[in-house]
Specification:
Number of helices: 22
Helix content: 40-55%
Structural class: alpha/beta
Oligomer: single chain
Shape: globular
Strand content: 5-15%
Bound molecules: pyridoxal-5'-phosphate
Distance between the termini: 34 Å
Radius of gyration: 25 Å
Strand order of the largest sheet: 9-8-7-10-11-12
Number of strands: 14
Length: about 475
């Protein structure tokens, strides 16, 4: 447009372009860093292609002039007959940001390392946020109204003010009132679950929630493995755990076979438990259909535990983690995405962290992940996987899940399994101390102020868009 319609020179058009665009990277999963084949692109968009070629030519020359031509294998926009959209976005923008501290560090240290060497001042971070007027005010009016009575309503416009709740952390009356509200939200969800699935759940059980898109990196399968482990322990080894309701909701994209297999597996575990008179008194699995914002608004206010168990380094930020924290759920998570900042905000004592961190995952990838070693060295893993091979539900066998975990799982569920089970045992133990749990829950709500989208948008306006307030 600038060149052909408005007749600007290349230099002027490029200056306007780079001053206009800023690039926010939302994920480092390879399928999102698009690469388009020149063969496909060029005949469809010949003029755009010729402009990208010119951008690439000038950029590569500039890199050579900097004496950094060794970075070109990584940084060239057109390479190996492919157009690399992320590279084009970095070169064509005045700013590049990730969406959590950890993710922005990974961009600089790893994904876009060579670009950071070329443009050290272009890179920054803006941690994601959530619309708290939706996720608190609209989704949980009972909690919002109580908070307004207790600490005033200024948190509605400025969520940082919710930290006034912290001074009630040791006030038993306040903690009890918050727990009453949680119970009301759990009863409302129990009713919805009954109506939509026919499953009766106990509102006094722990509501353990994992709601998010179905993806292997998010590791719904790790959650499922723990449930099978509990099933086996209850049925054959006399375990009588604190009652728990595992609540899932997730959509798989239409062509994602493994995601659909995992949904089927979780539904089958649910059926297996429901048909067992002993086990169903202790654990239940509910998979709610048609995950979307309106369903999330029903589930999130009722959660006790927020499952944020992605393989470290894979979840750019997550925002479900923030919605659940704001509604008083305790995070059970890996040090991934914004979980790291939730951990900083609430401290070690008000979160359940487990599993490998990003450096350990990288190290294990360098040495080669060997799932069989975990199978052979952990009786818990061996017994759980062997049991899954014997599982037949509705005529379907699930050996393929075991084969996947032992030969294909690049997200290393087995490497984190023992640590996850230990963290889940601590969750159950902690839940039995109602007062302590209530206090931890309060501290989560009170320290969620930094996760408002208002704060995110202000950072974009100030640090990247350079928008001045008009008085
Ligand atoms: C918040 C939200 C998400 C993102 O959840 P994550 O746990 O951060 O992946 C996805 N879908 C819906 C409907 C949501 O409300």
């Amino acid at each position: 447009l600038l060149l052909d319609e408005y007749g600007y020179s290349w230099d002027k058009a490029w200056d306007i372009t780079t001053k206009t665009f800023a690039y926010t990277n939302h994920t480092i999963m390879a399928e999102a860093l698009e690469k388009w084949s020149v063969e496909l692109f060029k005949p469809l968009l010949p003029r755009i292609y010729s402009i990208i070629e010119e951008i690439n030519k000038r950029f590569c020359q500039w890199v050579i002039d900097q004496g950094k031509d060794y970075t070109l294998v990584e940084t060239a926009i057109i390479y190996d007959n492919q157009i690399r959209m992320a590279n084009l976005s970095i070169v064509g923008s005045h700013n590049v940001n990730g969406v959590s501290k950890l993710h922005s560090d990974i961009l600089v240290d790893s994904t876009f390392r060579a670009f950071h060497e070329l443009y050290p001042t272009k890179f920054g971070n803006v941690t994601n946020g959530i619309a708290h007027r939706r996720w608190l005010g609209q989704a949980n009016p009972e909690l919002a109204e109580y908070l307004e009575d207790l600490i005033g309503d200024d948190f509605v416009k400025d969520l940082s003010k919710i930290d006034k709740l912290n001074k009630y952390a040791k006030d038993k009356k306040v903690v009890e009132k918050l727990q009453e509200i949680k119970k009301v939200k759990k009863e409302q969800l129990a009713k919805y679950i009954q109506e939509t699935t026919g499953i009766t759940v106990n509102p006094d059980s722990i509501f353990d929630v994992q709601v998010k898109r179905l993806h292997e990196y998010k590791r719904q399968l790790l959650n499922a493995l723990h449930i099978v482990y509990l099933y086996r322990e209850i049925k054959y080894n006399g375990l009588r755990p604190v009652p728990r309701t595992f609540i899932f909701a997730a959509k798989a994209s239409s062509g994602y076979q493994m995601a659909k297999n995992i949904i089927k597996f979780i539904h089958s575990i649910s059926q297996l438990i429901e048909s067992d008179e002993l086990v169903r008194d202790y654990i239940k699995v509910v998979f709610l259909p048609d995950y979307k914002v309106t369903l999330a608004e029903k589930i999130i206010p009722a959660a006790d535990i927020s499952e944020q168990i992605s393989q470290a380094g894979k979840e750019a930020s997550g925002t479900g983690n923030m919605k659940l924290m704001l509604n008083g759920a305790l995070t059970l998570g890996t040090l991934d995405g914004a979980n790291v900042e939730i951990h900083e905000a609430v401290g070690d004592d008000n979160i359940f962290i487990f599993g490998l961190g990003t450096p350990e995952v990288d190290e294990l990838n360098r040495h080669g992940y060997k799932p069989w070693e975990y199978y052979n060295s952990s009786a818990r893993i061996k017994d759980t996987l062997d049991f899954i091979r014997t599982m037949t539900v509705g005529g379907m066998n699930f050996s393929f899940i075991v084969d996947y975990l032992l030969t294909q799982d690049s997200y290393m569920c087995l490497a984190d399994f023992e640590s996850y089970v230990a963290a889940q045992e601590l969750v159950a133990k902690t839940y039995q101390d109602k007062e302590k749990w209530g206090q931890m829950s309060l501290i989560n709500t009170a320290n969620a102020g930094i996760f408002s989208a208002d704060r995110s948008v202000e950072e974009y306006a100030k640090d990247i868009w350079n928008i001045k307030k008009v008085k």
